[in-house]
Amino acid sequence: MTGLVVVCHSRPLARAAVALATEMTRGRPLQVEIAAGLDEDTYGTDAVAIMEAVVAADDGDGVVVLMDLGSAVLSAETALELLDPDVRDRVVLCPGPLVEGLVAAAVAAASGAGRSEVAAEALAGLAGKESHLGVTEQDQITEGTQGGPSAKVRVTDPHGLHARPAARVVGEARSFDARVELRNATTGSGWVPASSLSKVATLGVLQGHEVEVRASGAQAQEAVARVAAVAGSGSGLSTGRALSTGASQDLGSAGENGAGGGPQGRAGAVAGAASPGVAIGPAARLRAVPIDVPDVPSLGVEPERQRLDRALDQTRRELTRISDPIFDAHLLLLDDLDPEARTLIGQAHPAPQAWQQAVAAIAADFDALPDPYLRGRAADVRAVGDQVLRFLVGAPAPTLAGDGVLIAADLTPAEAATLDPTRIAGVLLAAGSPTSHAAILTRTRGIPAVVGAGPQVLDIRDGTLIALDGGSGEIAVAPADAVLDAFRARAAEQRARSQAARSRAIEPAVTTTGVPIAVGANVGSVEEARAAAANGADLAGLVRTEFLFQDRTAAPDVDEQLAVYRAIAAAFDGRRVTLRTLDAGSDKPVPFLPAPPEANPFLGVRGLRLSLAHPTVFAAQLQAIALVAREAPISVMFPMVTTVGELRRARMMLDEALARTGSGRPADLRVGMMVEVPAAALRAADFVPYADFFSVGTNDLTQYTLAAERGNAALMSLSTGLDPSVAQLIDLLCRAAGDRVPVAVCGEVAADEQAVPRLLASGVRQLSVAPALVPLVKQAVRAT
Ligand code: PEP
Ligand code: MG
User: Fold this and answer.
1) Cα–ligand 2 centroid distance for 165 (angstroms)
2) By alpha-carbon position, which residue is closest to atom 4 of ligand 1?
3) CA 484, CA 487: separation in Å to the nearest integer?
4) Most buried of 240, 252, 258, 526 (most Cβ within 10 A)?
5) Using an 8 Å Cβ cutoff, are 771 and 537 in contact?
6) Hey, what CATH topology would domain 244-288+399-500 get?
């Protein structure tokens, strides 16, 4: 028999509702449980109690859960996560009304209906009342009080119009040439502009509330119809979608690589395998460090507004990069906060103070709401507010609160670069793909990571035990003992393999046919250079110098750069060091090189293009490189070269730097370029006269060849591994290079054991990989 569970803030109310419903079943048996109130007199709901009630109500035919309002819904959703996956798949959270729905559900369940039918009956529980009172689900569009069209609609989304549904309403309202307004007819609120997320969210609209929409302007009619539809369903879809079953709680939504079955208690979810290794530990998060806002007077209205514009642009870029609906809501909040802050700047407040006040005012509006879930949205306002404030005052990024498996939406390259492997067992990201910069940096630091696991991972509570395998992408949340044992066994096997590889790390890597292959390391700090040398790297095949430039308000001067390049060269102790010039822009912004907003930043002013656009910064870097090249075997490498003209200009600037720093050209200096743009691979022969070496950046080459942004989780299957089209470009490049120009690969596929034989067959003779992977890649070469 289908069981019923009543989730309600008040225990007496739940009991009375059950008594009423039981009365209607006329003595037929009914399996109904209550999970209501924290005790007899205290209002509240408890996920564990709900979970236990579901287990008690389930005899194998499944359970329909009816909830009252607000946090009851959230607690019920959390309870689902606590259930065994097979039980969870039999549970339906039903948005039907508590009393009428329960009565209808009880009658249906007692007469033997299955759980879908019982839930449908409950959902239609208001039909009798509505038809009696002459109310339809979505009232006809009528002439509004302002003379324009208007409509009333009942909200069916279980969370009412909270951040995400509200963001969809706002997005729709803004897409029409009309002024659209909303009000909560159930509470009798005033009208608010539908284009403002904070105003819409503060209407306190809960499931079952009636919202009134009105509009004026050219597209008023269409706007009212569309906004009412979206507000009503929360998604613009039919109400049939409102029923949620346990199956929808699974982790992962990463396109083809997305999660399979529920992860609870077993290794059922698979996402982007970003950095090999097994990690087991409690879930931990980044916590913001307090932001220190200096008490200095305004520099004037215009400069302060420009400062705000820059910080907003940077924040928008970050939010857009993550591209998850929750961050779409944050983007809309920025639009609400912006005018408030701008007004305060006009009243002689400096930008940071004006921004803080605007954030405090709007967050306070949310704090004042009666519904706890909507009240919780104040946290979104403060989170996005802090993000902007950090850019305004140049404050550091959040730091890790505890040790364990770090869970985050995504990490900026700067955040990923500072992860401490002694504290972080592993990384689990909602967004990103294995070739995103955050993923690369976890690999560089030897931290197992799974990325693109979908926004559900953000709901995992701090402290929950997580096991993940960054080599296969498997994740287990709160794993059962057997699953945990399997992860531990795998970890032991990987440790043994890596120890065997490490014991031969300093030996050269030679193929079975006797071809020597240089295996270098990609490094992004002096510390990583030391780790790479200790792991037997034959050279530094790629030094990502941008680590010196990120997260600061001014470029490092020549002396500072020289000191770092010298320290890296010292770590490699006579082995070659390939210094790549600044590769900033798009997802690696540098605050002191403000870039105008770009519609497609990955196709914009980045890499060498950005350096050439800022000749003073570029010249200083080349000068530091020229100086260290007089002391150690250095290769200079230019990133993202597209045309021969760019390479020649860069070489000319290097020649000028060499002339400024002494006489003659250091004998051991080599100058080369990254091949990351298909145009460069296709025209390789034209570059040959100007390059001492080519190094293929497969991360970008793949992104540009397959038109698949490297950080986009949904496109992970396109951007991971060695695609045949990229392999063909590498073939072309090697043929054009012939014996004159050696070809290296420093993109992530260089560490892909499956890809190594193919790369070597094309003629690649140098591989450069994350420091921790050097010994394993040497083994892969030896097996080729
Ligand atoms: C690449 O694009 O493959 C590369 C090595 O450069 P980065 O990942 O730093 O863009
Ligand atoms: Mg690149």
Assistant:
1) 37
2) 697
3) 5
4) 252
5) yes
6) Glucose Oxidase; domain 1 (3.50.30)
